[in-house]
Amino acid sequence: MLNKYAYSEQQRLLALERLNILDTGREPEFDRITHMAAELCELPLSVISLVGRNRLWFKSVFGNDDLTGLPLGDTFCETAIQSDGVFEVADVASCPEFCASTLVTEHNINYYAAAPLISVEGFRLGTLCVLGAKAGELQDYQRKALIHLSRLVVDLIETKWRMRLLGDLPGMVYRIAHVEGWVTEFISDGCTDITGFSSDELIGMEGRFMCKLIHEDDRDKAWDSIERAISTNTPYQHTVRIVARNGEERWVWEQGRGLCNDVGDLLAIEGFVTDVTESRALSEQLAYMASHDHLTGLINRRELEIRLERALLSATNNGVQHALCFLDLDQFKLINDTCGHAKGDEVLQQLCEIIRSATRSRDTVARLGGDEFILLMENCHTDVAERICDEIIKHLNEVTVEHKGQIFRVGISVGITPVTGGESVHELLHAADSACYAAKRAGGKRSIVYKDEGVAESVRVLYNGD
Asked: How remote is the C-alpha of 306 from its chain's centroid?
């Protein structure tokens, strides 16, 4: 049928099917176009017709509600679709090739004019036609109007397709008009999965309602991001929490930008929102695994060094002092080798509980590996750190391990060094380790404060003997 064009009939049909317009229901936007076409051309009947695989399907009919479609071979449309302008049959009765059409024999049509519906790729999808019972002829302005309306039909079909496509994407696309109260003009169907509200419920809503969807602690952050982007004519993006219809908090990532007219007046903001709750949870889990010891749940050496750097910076800038404590279990290898690794793991976990109960909530406890631990106490002098470490030593000494009739007592040696801001991370760890080693050499179950190159400022011997 369409051999004169650079595409096959199969390509044309695929393009039509891609637009997903066939067999869709009546829509007021299309009905307004057929109504307008009939009035402008001063004819009683107007139809938007699409040429499918084996039938002619009517998307919109003005003037005859009984018309829904016709079989191929019984229409004017197959000829009109090939026209580059308005195809017109002024007097159907004088044209034998059309006299047998159902439109003529059953609906008394004697005049027909149509403009082809041509997609942006150049595919001919159907026609916008006007019909009447009397022979006649359109005037030039009516022909031009029919062509313009046919292009409007194609634009509407393409827009509807894009909106459906957006609606099928994960996440939601929106447009909020910059009018008093900020009004939602468009939002894709993906909003239901994210917010629990349908697009029909959200379209037309004022901005203050949309704003309430954002968690109250994140609203200022989101709005500041949008305002800054609008003022600099740049895109905005941020990650915030929303509160869904069912009260559930979800993390979303949003990106968009303001739209302005030629003189710079803000017309609307358009953007995209996607749910990142699961990916954020996974990211947080991976970050936790990368910074924490899997057995004890304490932070690891990597995270400890980051916090030590912060502590050094605060000591330097604010003139405060912190305390760094190196803790090493006494004779842990004997317990581990004799009682087994499972029992050794239990001892390590008991030690963690003792340290947590003896320290402040703001203190940092880390496991370096094996039976070595670090306690960083910020805004804390070494004399206070000594008292806290003495408590840890005392409580840990009460822990016993029984295995095959043997009882083992658990001890711990502690080295303490001040953090004043003039040291490096490596120097601090070395100083605390040196003091801990001195405590072990002195018999263990004690704490030593590092002064310089292994000289102890104080030695507190606790629980000499068993």
From this structure: 29
